[in-house]
Specification:
Elements: E1 12-13, E2 27-29, E3 44-46, E4 60-62, H1 68-83, E5 85-86, H2 88-92, H3 104-123, H4 134-144, H5 150-167, H6 181-184, H7 207-244, H8 249-265, E6 269-273, E7 278-280, H9 282-289, H10 293-303, H11 305-311, E8 313-314, E9 325-326, E10 329-330, H12 340-359, H13 363-367, E11 385-387, E12 390-391, E13 407-408, E14 413-415, H14 417-427, H15 439-442, H16 452-473, H17 493-503, H18 512-524, H19 538-562, E15 567-568, H20 572-580, H21 594-602, E16 608-612, E17 617-621, E18 649-652, H22 653-670, H23 675-698
Parallel strand pairs: 6-8
Antiparallel strand pairs: 1-5, 2-3, 3-4, 6-7, 9-10, 11-14, 12-13, 15-18, 16-17, 17-18
Length: 705
């Protein structure tokens, strides 16, 4: 294939292949065919060579799903797209997000989008791409973009534009018309802002779901991991014995001594579930008695154990001490030989949940962690644990080509203790230097790591297991309910972390202080040694969620004042101004442009309101007067360190009512405690009531427009 120049100086080019630089980056899989002009009708195009990320699936394009009349033309254009790249001069006109070559996943999605167009054109009796005129482009855009969000619509238009662009590179151009949005601009073709489909698709996990989910995950990592790992090692030892045992008279005697009393006394027999029917656990029995497989089979036949095991299946306990506890009781009476694989699976899932939620990493970044990624700090230092990991979003080489293998982040992630514990557990599950979520060690399949879809299924199984344990043990309050926004997925943890940092400063679930520490660490990156790095990644998510939370607080205050509530505090006037200027967000509309608006909103020092439900007040954050000692350049208070007497305090009648309610709760609790503790609680209750009285005597009413 040679370099191509489109008509009228087309700004695309195809690379000139040389013996030293292979450019065919896709494999055409079909019997004896290696070129897209093949007459074979239903080949599968694998984009595997374009994928160097072990956590990514290998996309395959099934051309049998494409309209037959247009299949050949689209195949040739897709082959051209996969093996070519865009000129720097063209990329310069397309914005900073444009890439010379995109990822395999994006190539796959682009081909799927082309197939949708092909089906529509076939319905219009068009059998040649040359027949796709300006009029048909407009008609298709009106139909295709009617029910999608603006971001999705813009991406769809870009992928359809690629069809025209790469067709001009082809050795046999079809002459398809240039899409009108590429010359007129895409805005007029997209749905209006504010439609129902424009809401952010990634919803944070409900706190009632995340609380018990995180509790169970950390319980596995901190309390159960030692027992599970020891049981796994013992199981491997027993399996090795079962496969190498040599039958001897002594082992036959041990076998009889082990099983005959159970048979005669009617006790449960060690069993495993085979094809839906309990069977004798032959490997387990052979390992604990030293009997060979042949001796165990012969014993089963002689004593008719097949039917007895089906009637009296029992556990297969191992000689492993149980040290973990659940609700002040041992969580297992003994570690079971056949339960260990399931528990190992849940242990890896629990560690993944901890890492996903308490770091803010993207799922692929977590799945690509390697053993040794989080070394201990140097002795006699106060350094933090940090995680060295790869990131993948918008990673390109010097020529603008997408790098599917990603690159090591220039700035490491800061790891808090639960995350370090989770990584240490995973490091015991894989060899040194291996990927922590390697499929070879977590699912028995060679190559790559667990993928997000599979991890989503594992989280669902983990939730089911935890709820079963909750039910049989009567652990009220630890059941993991269904999330109102749908299944628990790995893509939701990152947004959830930002949600809790912004909206739960004191923490209503677990690790309250860690949320505050996380924000401190993130803000420190812009004011200390990380100051030269642009605010991106988790900062973007946190800024958006913080702005949404602040806007909700201002809107809620406006509604309360309109309903007749009073307001007090040294920052009451500023809070009235903020409430009057509060935007109202219906849903969670977060287009790309809102990131900049969110940061601008938070930079309005003095009139941004932050709800603090634990301190029972609103903070009208003004940096210079804040007593929580916010770092330089920060735009949000350290809400976990809220201090009395701060000049940013605002309270309403609702806060006063809640202050009295909390005081009553403290008095009630004091009645069940020793005198010194009770006296302290009564003092705190009196202080809360005094604060409520102060509000009632100084509060003012105001109508907010």
């Amino acid at each position: 294939m040679t370099a191509a120049q489109g008509a009228d100086g087309d700004p695309y080019m195809l690379p000139m292949p040389t013996p030293d630089t292979p450019v065919v980056l896709a494999k055409w899989i079909s019997p004896g065919n290696t070129h897209p002009n093949s007459t074979y009708q239903d080949p599968v195009w694998s984009l595997a060579p374009l994928v160097d990320n072990p956590a990514s699936a290998l996309p395959r394009i099934y051309w049998k799903n494409c309209a037959p009349s247009l299949r050949g033309q689209l195949k040739l254009t897709a082959w051209t797209m996969t093996n070519g790249w865009l000129r720097p001069t063209y990329l310069h006109t397309r914005g900073v997000q444009a890439k010379a070559r995109t990822s395999a996943g994006d190539l796959y999605a682009t081909c799927v989008e082309w197939m949708k167009l092909a089906r529509w054109l076939t319905q219009q009796h068009i059998t040649d791409l040359a027949g796709c005129t300006d009029t048909l482009w407009r008609a298709y855009a009106h139909e295709r973009l009617a029910a999608v969000s603006r971001p999705t619509g813009a991406l769809t238009c870009a992928r359809l534009t690629d069809l025209w662009a790469f067709d001009r590179l082809s050795a046999s151009p079809t002459g398809i018309a240039r899409p009108p949005w590429d010359t007129e601009g895409v805005d007029d073709f997209l749905p209006a802002v504010g439609g129902a489909r424009a809401e952010n698709a990634i919803e944070p996990l409900d706190p009632q779901v995340l609380g018990p989910l995180l509790i169970w995950a950390m319980r596995f990592v901190d309390d159960f991991a030692g027992d599970i790992l020891a049981a796994s090692a013992e199981r491997r030892r027993l399996l090795a014995l079962a496969h190498t045992n040599q039958g001897t008279p002594a082992s036959a005697a041990a076998l009889e001594q082990f099983l005959l009393p159970l048979v005669r006394e009617g006790g449960p027999l060690p069993a495993t579930v085979g094809t839906g029917r309990p069977l004798l656990a032959r490997s387990y029995v052979g390992a604990v008695t030293g009997a060979s497989r042949w001796q165990v089979l012969k014993f089963v036949e002689q004593h008719g154990l097949g039917d007895l095991v089906a009637q009296r299946p029992g556990p297969c306990p191992m000689n492993v001490p149980v040290r973990g506890s659940l609700d002040c009781m041992p969580w297992r009476t003994a570690m079971d030989f056949h339960e260990v694989p399931q528990l190992m699976r849940h242990l890896a899932t629990a560690a993944a949940i901890v890492c996903l939620y308490l770091t803010g990493m993207r799922p692929q970044e977590v799945l690509n962690l390697c053993s040794g990624c989080c070394p201990d700090p140097e002795p006699d230092t106060t350094g933090r644990h940090v995680i060295r990991s790869r990131h993948f979003k918008n990673v390109t080489d010097t020529d603008g080509h997408h790098l599917s293998a990603g690159e090591i982040r220039a700035v490491p992630w800061v790891a808090i203790t639960p995350v370090v514990n989770a990584i240490r557990v995973l490091e015991q599950m894989v060899p040194d230097g291996e990927l922590l979520f390697s499929t070879a060690h977590h699912s028995g399949r060679p190559g790559g790591t667990l993928q997000t879809g599979g991890l989503n299924l594992r989280i669902n199984d983990f939730t089911t297991w935890a709820n079963h344990e909750t039910a049989i043990r009567g652990l009220t309050g630890q059941h993991i309910p269904d999330d109102p926004h749908g299944p628990i997925k790995v893509s939701r943890f990152r947004r959830t972390l930002a949600w809790h940092i912004a909206r739960r400063p004191g923490g209503l679930i677990a690790l309250a202080i860690q949320y505050g520490h996380m924000r401190t660490v993130l803000d420190a990156r812009t004011s200390s040694r990380y100051g030269t790095r642009s605010r991106g990644g988790i900062h973007t998510v946190l800024d958006v969620e913080t702005a949404l939370a602040a806007a909700d607080t201002a809107a809620r205050l406006r509604d309360q004042l309109a309903a007749g509530e009073h307001i007090s505090g040294p920052a009451a006037d500023r809070a009235l101004t903020a409430a009057a200027q509060a935007p109202r967000f219906e849903g969670r509309i977060v287009p790309r442009t809102f990131v900049h608006k969110a940061r601008a909103y938070l930079e309005r020092d003095g009139i941004v309101l932050f709800d603090n439900p634990d301190a029972l007040l609103i903070c009208a954050f003004q940096h210079d007067t804040a007593l929580c000692n916010p770092g330089p350049g920060t735009t949000a208070p350290r809400q976990y360190d809220c201090r009395p007497g701060c000049g940013n305090t605002v309270r309403t009648d609702t806060h006063a009512r809640l202050l009295r309610q909390r005081a009553d709760e403290l008095d009630q609790l004091a009645g069940h405690l020793p005198t010194p503790l009770a006296r302290r609680l009564h003092t705190n209750a009196d202080r809360l009531r005094d604060t409520a009285v102060t509000h009632e005597t100084t509060a003012q009413s105001s109508e907010v427009p």
